[in-house]
Amino acid sequence: MDRILLKNASAVVTCDPADHVYYDCDILIEGPKILCIGKNLDAKKQDTPGNRSRAADTQIINARGKFVYPGLINTHHHFFQTFVRNLTAIDYPNLMVMDWIEKIYQIFQIIDSKVIYYSTLTAFADLIKHGCTCAFDHQYCYTKKTGKEPVDRQMEAAELLGIRYHAGRGANTLSISEGSSIPDNMLETTEEFLVDCDRLIGKYHDPRPYSMRQIVMAPCQPLNCRPETFRETVRMARDKKVRMHTHLGEGENEGMLARYGKRTMDWCQELGFIGPDVWYAHDWEVLPEEYQVLAGTGTGISHCPAPAVLGGFPILNLKELDQAGVLVSLGCDGSATNDSSNLLDSLRMAYLMQAYHAKKRNGCVSAYDMLKIATVNGAKTLGRTDLGSLEPEKGADLFLIDTENLELSGALHDPKNLLARVGQTGPVWMTMINGKIVYQDGVLKGVDEKRLAAEGEAVCSRVIRANSSAFSNL
Predict the structure, then answer these.
(1) What angle do CA 396, 402, 404 make, to 5 degrees?
(2) Using an 8 Å Cβ cutoff, are 13 and 421 in contact?
(3) Verdict on whether the full-model pTM lies above 0.70
(4) Which has the least CB within 10 A, 48, 160, 201, 354?
(5) Which residues contact 230 (CB under 8 A, 6 or more apart)?
(6) CA atoms within 13 A on the CB side of 376
């Protein structure tokens, strides 16, 4: 395996348990993992006894003037929605969530397999360029035109760009006539869902260290699925040893009380859809008395700041959740409620949201705390003990920012807090995933970005823009 030596990095923010920051030091990487971090590293001297020297195979990268961070980990997204960004026919800020869902599904039902592929490439490119190295996507858009291919097409896109991908195989199994918001041509049966989950787990799920792809069983949301969909998900997921995910606490509790006489978390707990192998998206309706349930069961929350702000919804109290022992990670959410796949932007927004309430509450999480939510906690949420921090034997997932730019002059006092506090939300200088440079100095490696962008635009025009007149009547 070839080696990469990052030389003379101005700062390395490790996010390790001791919160080390190393200055003017090197990182030696071999294959998918970090070998060591220290000053004046010599590739020859790091060879293990009995092995020939790998110095001749070592690529040396001058990291002077660069700050190095662990790769960001995105724990909630909907890649298929990137082609409805900036679509004025659906004005999310002026709609309640359930009303928005009812309208947006009328657009989603026309999506085909090519939209899935190119919208996924679009989201991945945005994530990679802004320091994200491992991404989870909640793919619940299965139409007559997509067939059962969406996750397969997403895996193709992930492999092309070189990003770690955890695919959430979603499903909607309750019809409109029974009280859901799902058009008939986007419905699946629970059995269809389970059969395809079994296929995907067998084909793609890799639980080994440094794995590049895994599968998560992720029914879309309780209001749009049958109880047996969740019950059978729990049975299969724990048998196959894969994780579980769903939307929860994002405006559906009133409907759940009317339908089942209980709040959504109680409903999930009754069905077994709770525990250290489960995390929920959003949960801005979570009650203080439910904190202990989440903490006691080890269930996580993916905090997605953009849709909460855009929709005017309650802001999670991250300080109190942390003090209660609840695992919180960071997600972009779908582009229909974010218009962005930039996790650095979500990091900044989440920090400012907490700061806004700090004086009224019990203090604010620090900008560095937010970084650890987006790295260490993201890895824990996905069950990745091999990711989330920069340490020997951890996966070589990291990004570098160039600090020798005028706009950062005078702001380099504290590398740990820089990203969220100063608002470093633009493209990074370099992103490395699994020991491979996938993006550097404005260039995605190994692909013709202009060609892919043109192809994606053509698909968007054919499927979305060609039907835009129908959207205006929604």
Answers:
(1) 150
(2) no
(3) yes
(4) 48
(5) 219, 222, 246, 268, 271, 273
(6) 17
- Domain locations in the chain? 3-70+394-442, 72-381
First-last CA distance in the chain: 55
| Phi, psi (deg, nearest 5) at residue 216 | -125, 135
Give yes or no for a contact between 362 and 354, defined as CB atoms under 8 angstroms apart: no
Closest CA to 266 of 290, 250, 282, 243: 290
**Phi and psi for 148 in degrees, rounded to 5?**
-100, 20
Closest by Cα among 78, 129, 75, 76 to 100 = 78
d(CA 429, CA 442): 7
Q: Residue 300: helix, strand or coil by DSSP?
A: strand
pLDDT in tens, the chain (474 residues): 789 999 999 999 999 999 999 999 999 999 999 999 999 998 876 665 545 555 558 999 999 999 999 999 999 999 999 999 988 776 666 666 667 777 788 889 999 999 999 999 999 999 999 999 999 999 999 999 999 999 999 999 999 999 999 999 999 999 999 999 889 999 999 999 999 999 999 999 999 999 999 999 999 999 999 999 999 999 999 999 999 999 999 999 999 999 999 999 999 999 999 999 999 999 999 999 999 999 999 999 999 999 998 888 889 999 999 999 999 999 999 988 899 999 999 999 999 999 987 766 667 899 999 999 999 999 999 999 999 999 999 999 999 999 999 999 999 999 999 999 999 999 999 999 999 999 999 999 999 999 999 999 999 999 998 886 666 555
- Record: fold of 72-381: TIM Barrel (3.20.20)
User: What's the burial of 165, exposed, middle or buried (CB within 10 Å: 0-12/13-18/19+)?
Assistant: buried
Task: Kindly give the residue spans of alpha helices, DSSP state H, lying in 361-438.
Answer: 367-374, 376-381, 418
* Those residues with Cβ within 8 angstroms of residue 254's Cβ, 6 or more apart along the chain or in another chain: none
Q: What is the rounded radius of gyration, in angstroms, for the C-alpha atoms of the chain?
A: 22
Helix (H) or strand (E) holding 187: none
Contacts of 235 (CB under 8 A, 6+ apart): none
Residues 6+ apart with CB under 8 A from 24: 8, 9, 10, 39
CATH 2.30.40.10 fits 3-70+394-442, yes or no: yes
Residue type, 96: M
Q: Rounded distance, CA 194 to CA 200, Å?
A: 10
Separation of alpha carbons 111 and 147, rounded Å: 10
54 touches 114 (CB < 8 A) = no
